[in-house]
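Internal QA ticket QA-208
Title: Verify multi-chain structure generation after dependency bump
Assignee: T.L.

Test input:
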Amino acid sequence: MGLLQSLANGLLIGSVYALIAVGLTLVFGVMDIVNFAHAEFLMLGMFGGFVASHHFGIDPLVAAPLVGAVVFGLGALLERVLIEPIIKAPPLAQVMATVGLGLMLADGAAALMGSDFRSVKTSYQTTTIDALGLRLSATYLYAAVYALVVAVLLALFLNKTEFGKAMRATAQNRGAAVLMGINPKRMYMLAFGLGVGLAALAGSAIVPYALVYPFVGQQYVLIMFTVVVLGGLGSVLGAIFAGLAVGVIQSLTTLVLPSELQNLVVFVVFLVVLVLAQGGVMRRVRPA
Amino acid sequence: MSVLPDERTEPTRRAVSSRVRPGNAALMVVLLAALFGAPFYLGNEYQVRILVLVCIFGAAAVGWNLLGGYANQVSLGHAVFFGVGAYAVVIFQGTLGWSPWLAMPVGVLVSLVAALVIGWPTFQLSGHYFALGTLALLQVFHIVARYWRV
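Actual output:
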């Protein structure tokens, strides 16, 4: 496989990583909570897409916004019940709560759906699109375009709309936001719902090419954290670029190393960036 | 986050200062006797195996509690050291043919060295970042363990 082809594949995969990670970075930026259960909401979205396609005959790409909306509601509810009480708790309690939530979601899905690997059938599954001398898989291309459009829409929402500005204001200075008439608790519910809803939407969009099973989140959890940390915790645009970068790194790694090791380089980059940047990049991006 | 959390957020600290009461000590002795005697009164090997696993996972959890509970460092990668120890024993005993009694302490030693190497960079992180860093180490170890053939 040529360098350009590999680069293109990396960008396609990376767009999806970008969409998954913007939700995570949004929750962190607004609420200062690291949601270790984020990948499990992606899993819920994948199951949502699977159920829509397998039981109702709706294409996962069409069902994605609906799946996202349902998980948005679930996320907002869980925020009120589970996250709100620990929003000012020490990291130990926050990590325990969100890791525990993730385990419950994964094992709940296993109890409900069984732990088999499942996939959906779509008409475009084996289609490839040839452009500029590159051969792109239709499922990856559709998911990538979908993800990029939604991620850019989110960036616009945060920067241009009243709601988005209120959310960013809460992130920057909760006290001042309250004085401006913003209800921070509502913003937290909205941010968490939006964050996990986007992960679910991404999940539904990747179901045409990815296998779904209750513990699929483990495949994605560290990649999404890598993207978020590389992009600067809390930065949505940063997450979009970092998502593309991680996809490309992963894809180029397979040119020189066995494919089992494709994540190794990504994770080592992550560790180095984490250790080097904790005092610098991240503290700068993070709202005080 | 302060370095030393107060008593309300850290219930384990109170347990340290309280003395062991005679009643508890007697209970401990009875439990230990029951545990060590288990192979003699339990009917089959399966039950003994379960009990052994209980002790092993209990030991691993006590180890985590030292770091997570007492030192307040939430490690999500604690299983790495469990795995390093286990793999070391398998390699020294299985591949190199050492006695298990020698392989086990060497496994502890290997895990200790791994902890020193891993601890040096990760202890520069705090709070959530420490959790993230240790989670990354877990995944790195997972990939390496699956790929590496000895």
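Spot checks passed. Residues 73-150 of chain B form one domain.
Status: verified.
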